[in-house]
Design goal:
By secondary structure, the protein is mainly α. It has a domain at about 25-55. About 0% of the residues are buried. It contains two helices and no strands.
Length: about 55
C-alpha cells in the first residue's frame, strides 16, 4: 500500500506538470498534419472505390 506521504508527493509532482506549458514544435506539427492528410486521402480513396463497386 502507498503511504500518505507518497500520495502527497505524487500529487504535488502532477500539479507541477500541470503548470508546464510548451508549444508543439512546428516541424513535428507539420509532419503530423501531413501524415493525417495522407491517411484521410487513403481512407476517402478507399471509400470511393467501394462506392463504385457496391453502390452503382
Amino acid at each position: 500500500m502507498y503511504r500518505i506521504n507518497q500520495n502527497h508527493e505524487i500529487v504535488s509532482l502532477l500539479l507541477k506538470l500541470k503548470d508546464v506549458e510548451e508549444d508543439y514544435p512546428a516541424d513535428l506539427l507539420s509532419a503530423r498534419r501531413t501524415s493525417f492528410l495522407m491517411l484521410l486521402a487513403r481512407y476517402v480513396g478507399s471509400w470511393i472505390r467501394v462506392e463504385k463497386v457496391f453502390f452503382r
